[in-house]
Amino acid sequence: MDYSPEITSLTWKKDGQLITTGVKKYPSVRNKKGTYTLSSQLTITESEGRCSNISCEVRHSGSDKSNGMKCPPPVNTPNVLLTVSSNEEISSKKFATMVCSVNDFRPKSMTVKWLKNGQPMGSGFATSPPCEVNRNFSASSRLTVSAGEWFSKAVYTCQVTHQEGTQSQNITASGKRHKQRKQ
Known about the structure:
- By secondary structure, this protein is mainly β.
- The chain folds into 2 domains: 2-70, Immunoglobulin-like (Sandwich), CATH 2.60.40.10; 79-182, Immunoglobulin-like (Sandwich), CATH 2.60.40.10.
- The chain has helices at residues 46-49, 87-93, 147-150, and strands at 2-3, 7-14, 17-19, 23-25, 29-30, 36-37, 40-42, 53-60, 63-70, 79-84, 95-105, 111-116, 119-120, 125-127, 131-133, 136-146, 156-162, 165-171, 177-182.
């Protein structure tokens, strides 16, 4: 930033407390327009910056400025669990309901796709919006198919895509489950 008059002090703060380590300050330079440019660099580890309010405070005789920087929130990879109603329940109700539970993830953004024998399904499912639980997010997606479709031995896949990659879980009428993780 360009300032006039010359800057008298520049400090870095973390959660309101002065930071003295990892700070580099460079000399103020006078520009052709008569204003001054000052640079400073703060080096911190990812864990030091996590969930902290970092600010650079500049003071000069004209005014005080504080520029806060938001650090990105930590990323948590979701835990994915695919379950299905019992064969007895499927036989009596004439349909199968699969539930794909997606838990403990952050940030909030994620998508769920359902596949049948490796092909995307366009209907028969509903996905809840993520809700916040203990500073992480959880969601679920339910797929309902007829008992005939379920017992046809098709392979159903819940595919969850999140910032850290894609995870898939498969399930069949025989009860076999397979967990996969793709990047």
